[in-house]
Write a structure and sequence with these properties.
Elements (H helix, E strand, L loop, with lengths): L7 H8 L6 H9 L3 H15 L4 E11 L27 H15 L6 E6 L8 H14 L3 E3 L4 H11 L3 H11 L3 E2 L9 H7 L6 H13 L3 E8 L5 H18 L2 E8 L21 H14 L5 E3 L2 H12 L6 E4 L6 H4 L10 H10 L3 E4 L11 H11 L1
Parallel strand pairs: 1-2, 1-8, 1-9, 2-3, 4-5, 5-6, 6-7
Helix pairs in contact: 2-10, 2-11, 3-11, 5-7, 6-7, 6-9, 7-9, 9-10, 11-12
Length: about 375
């Protein structure tokens, strides 16, 4: 199945739907033929999702504040408390952004995704989030609130002197539907000490998602690679995610992207990181191995925001089954000098999916299929003409 004696035994395990070991994944990362890895990963993807379909969702990122005291060295977006460039968006500006999303995506319940994240702003307490989330929930029934990283939730709990479970429960009751996987970076404390030593520890990130799953909420998992980590650190990250998914089954999807060094403190000092931005081959290898190893994850998202449309399209044959979000707005990655959002309107996204041999199908955050509304279809046709 693999076409190579070097990983032929692993290919046989994949063909028998047997779980791979960490050593198997280590060998796959070392395997030079990315095309062979892609074939194996694509076989697994098609076994899980035999229809020739690639999904996407209609969503918008809203970065409600850029004020953050953590000052992660890999981040170009944050501004420290007291900075003249710091902001917290007023509610009406947030509502105006959501109005634009709903006008674009239609009014079917929970069909439009809001990915709302920000920095660790010491002025914002739990009551701020409860008020904002409940107002959005009541005003916009078509919106799925996929918001707040584990890091933000840990900080909110700390400021409020509440347990993680109670904090998440109150956020859920206020309208939070699901939690994104941001903040995972690499789940190895030695790596986290270098790229963001003030951030939460590995066990804390895992505990937020464990607690959310225990409350019946779904979350996503991520990995930001290509900075100071080794292959062994990537393997440990994937192992921890697979173990938690075995325990809870609460992750809906996995998304990997590479470190964007421009305009960051870490990127400015080549002696402190790997020094070379990850290549397209590294990305395809990483997503393929992740699909093969994370056998208990159903969905894997493309990373067109960091990789661009062409690598994202190729990744559809390396284990990826979802193209991610239309992302009407993106600020964090673009702050580091990388932006492909101007290349990715909905018509282009669907064209890329079709040219790769799949049918584009809209879904919501829960990976349920959503009908494409007449207004959205008209906008697609207008963009394509």
């Amino acid at each position: 199945m693999s076409g190579s004696r070097g990983i032929a035994d692993i290919g046989e395990k994949v063909g028998r739907d047997q779980r791979l070991t960490v050593d198997d994944a280590r060998r796959l990362f070392a395997h030079p033929n990315v095309a062979e890895l892609g074939l194996l990963a694509h076989a697994v993807r098609m076994r899980k999702h035999p229809e020739p379909v690639v999904t996407y969702n209609v969503g918008r990122n809203i970065n409600y504040t850029n004020v953050c005291w953590v000052r992660c060295d890999f981040c170009a977006f944050y501004r420290p408390p007291g900075s003249d460039e710091g902001y917290t968006l007023p509610h009406e500006e947030i509502f105006a952004k959501i109005d634009e999303l709903v006008a674009f995506g239609g009014d079917e319940p929970k069909s439009n995704e809001i990915l709302m994240q920000g920095g660790l702003n010491p002025k914002l307490r739990l009551d701020y989030y409860e008020d904002l989330l409940s107002r959005i929930r009541d005003r916009y029934p078509s919106v799925q609130l996929h918001c707040l990283s584990a890091t933000e939730i840990i900080y909110i709990a700390h400021l409020s002197k509440l347990s993680l479970e109670e904090t998440i429960r109150r956020l859920r009751d206020a309208g939070l539907d699901s939690i994104p996987g941001a903040g995972a970076e690499i789940l190895v404390d030695e790596v986290r000490d270098v790229i963001g030593f003030r951030k939460d520890r590995t066990h804390e990130w895992l505990e937020v998602h464990r607690a959310a799953h225990g409350l019946g909420m779904r979350t996503t998992a991520t990995m930001m690679y290509g900075h100071v980590e080794r292959v062994e650190d990537r393997l440990e990250h994937l192992r921890l995610l697979r173990e938690l998914q075995d325990e809870t089954g609460g992750f809906t999807a996995f998304i990997a992207w590479n470190f964007q060094p421009d305009e960051t403190d870490l990127g400015a000092d080549a002696s402190r990181w790997n020094g070379v931005k990850a290549t397209g081959y590294d990305h395809l290898r990483t997503v393929a191995v992740s699909r093969l190893f994370l056998d208990n994850f159903d969905h894997f998202q493309a990373s067109w925001v960091t990789q661009g449309p062409k690598i994202a399209q190729v990744s559809l044959r390396c284990g990826i089954d979802d193209f991610g979000s239309t992302m009407l707005e993106e600020n964090v990655v673009s702050a580091a000098g990388t932006s492909h959002t101007n290349e990715m309107d909905l018509a282009n996204m669907e064209r890329l999916i079709r040219d790769a041999g799949f049918d584009p199908v809209r879904r919501n955050t829960r990976y349920e299929r959503v009908a494409t509304r007449p207004r959205l279809q008209a906008l697609q046709h207008a963009a394509a003409s």
